[in-house]
Write a structure and sequence with these properties.
It contains 21 helices and eight strands. It is mostly helical. The strands form four sheets. The protein has a two-stranded antiparallel sheet with strand order 1-3. It has a two-stranded antiparallel ribbon with strand order 2-6. The chain has a two-stranded antiparallel sheet with strand order 4-5. The longest helix has 26 residues.
Length: 515
């Protein structure tokens, strides 16, 4: 009998099952059998490394082509972007993957694959971080494995951050959720934990984990000079600031972002697209935390989200395209409407990764422009309107000084196939014309500055999993989505707990109102 990953809250627990294997064991995952064995340096390292995987866009980590269950890839793009007024499921509407249409149209129920996948990915990540922490918090771990104190502390800091990141996703999307802080070994423990902790308790734990991580990670831009993808102290400070933002702790937001600024680790890239350019990963100045996708790795570690782009998924809404100011380079760098590809998601402007289920481009989670706009929001909320406007104008200045490259595909003159092969042709244009994205003027009106901030975040962060969370935390989701022609109800402020989870807990796990 081996440990399997089963559905419901038990996805996070790795309990025994021989007949009902609903998902497959992801490569590199730590089972409780392994966790109970004598740890080695390799198993300790692996337990932390595998904890990153649920953030990636690798395909089929938890099941094999379970589209309806939302388990083919991480669902944040569905939950945060397709659900918003920025994105449509496809460039050409069709009946493919109707569960995504239900998210887009707010007709989803508690059996929809979007919330189901998001729940399972996050609790799988929490399971892995809890196993890693169980290893690393063993007081004898250094003598048992030979790990150095410095390396142990670094891995502890990473694990605490990752657990907080997964809980951040859960609490913002579902509200009250089960809080599991250690590996669980029995069914009784599992059912005891299958109850929802108040969201305030979850937020408190997120903050505690991050504050602990902050003391453990080195005071350098990268925690490891050879593995720059690992969680850094800057990422921890940034997520602490975002936690404060979502709880309207404006003073903490300002303090934490200011602390990040004083490290000198980050600055705005001169060119907007450098944040997403797969050829400039870990050489740019702005990205604070991303997942490191690698092509042709064994086991596979490529960016599978590029695959559905080859089938026409993830298109901009007409409203999103119309929201950009004239000549804003960020519009073309987000989506190439003539070629129907999404540059940000592909990591290139030539469409080269389109349709590739093993693409090399990273997935960006936190970058400096986003963080600066958090500070601008906090300053505006506390009456420092000029400070907020100064930051907004920094973001606009970078955008208007970005030179735009335009790439189209043309027939390759050397092609001998039918139909002929194509090749990308890129042309570099001049800077945007004078008058593009002018500085916002001084204003003493909070509502005016807030409107500028909302507009700036939409242009700057489009298709980066920020739009719907922003609309909800600003309290304008219903207003905006209704104007967008969607029937957004009060219950849609939270997603439903997956019905399979409620059923498997024998009703101990309660459902969100209205579902």
């Amino acid at each position: 009998m081996k440990y399997k990953y089963i559905t419901a809250i038990l996805i996070a627990l790795a309990l025994t099952s021989c007949e009902d294997e609903l998902t497959t064991d992801p490569i590199g995952a730590q089972t409780m059998e392994q966790a109970n064995s004598k740890p080695t340096l390799t198993s300790v390292e692996s337990s932390v490394t595998s904890s990153y995987d649920m953030l990636s866009n690798k395909l089929n980590q938890l099941a094999e082509w379970d589209w309806n269950g939302g388990l083919v890839f991480q669902n944040d793009i569905i939950i945060d972007d397709i659900a918003s007024d920025d994105m449509e499921k496809k460039w050409s509407p069709d009946g493919d993957q109707p569960w995504m249409d239900e998210i887009n149209n707010f007709t989803f129920t508690s059996t929809n694959g979007g919330p189901n996948g998001l729940w399972k990915y996050n609790y799988e990540g929490i399971k892995r971080t809890n196993i890693a922490l169980n290893f690393l918090l063993n007081p004898d771990i250094e003598s048992i494995t030979g790990i150095t104190t410095q390396r142990k502390n670094q891995l502890l800091g990473e694990a605490y951050f990752l657990r907080s990141y997964y809980y951040f996703s859960l609490v913002t999307n579902f509200g009250d959720v089960p809080l599991i802080l250690a590996p669980i070994k029995t069914y009784q423990e599992a059912f005891d934990k299958a109850v929802r902790a108040p969201k305030e308790t979850v937020w408190s734990q997120i903050k505690t984990d991050l504050e602990t991580a902050k003391t453990l990670l080195p005071n350098t831009k990268y925690s490891s000079s050879t593995e720059k993808w690992r969680v850094s102290k800057g990422a921890v400070i940034a997520l602490l600031a975002k936690t404060a933002l979502y709880n309207k702790d404006w003073a903490d937001v300002t303090t934490l972002v200011s602390e990040l600024e004083t490290t000198g680790f980050y600055s705005l890239d001169a060119n907007y697209f450098d944040n997403f350019n797969m050829n400039k990963e870990y050489a740019d100045n702005e990205v604070i935390f991303s997942y490191n996708h690698v092509k042709q790795a064994d086991p596979r570690k490529g960016n599978g989200i590029c695959a559905p782009l080859g089938w026409g998924f993830f298109a901009p809404s007409t409203d999103f395209l119309a929201s950009f100011e004239p000549n804003d380079p960020r519009k073309l760098y987000t989506v190439n409407t003539s070629e129907q590809w999404v540059n940000k998601l592909l990591g290139t402007t030539d469409g080269g990764n389109k349709g590739d289920d093993d693409a090399p481009n990273n997935k960006v989670f936190i970058r400096y422009a986003d963080v600066l706009l958090w500070k601008a929001e906090a300053l505006n909320e506390t009456g420092n309107y000029s400070g907020a406007i100064d930051i907004i104008n920094q973001i606009r200045a970078r955008a208007r000084n970005t030179v735009t490259t335009v790439t189209v595909r043309v027939i390759d003159p050397k092609s001998t196939t039918t139909p002929p092969e194509t090749m990308p042709v890129t042309s570099v244009g001049p800077p945007p014309p004078a008058g593009t994205l002018p500085d916002r003027p001084n204003s003493g009106d909070k509502a005016t500055v807030k409107a500028w901030l909302i507009s700036e975040r939409r242009a700057e962060l489009g298709f980066e999993n920020q739009r719907m969370p922003d609309l909800k935390r600003w309290g304008i989701a219903k207003e905006v989505m209704t104007a967008h022609g969607k029937i957004f109800l009060d219950k849609h402020m939270l997603y439903p707990i997956p019905q399979s989870e409620v059923d498997a807990s024998a009703g101990l796990l309660t459902q969100n109102p209205g579902y």
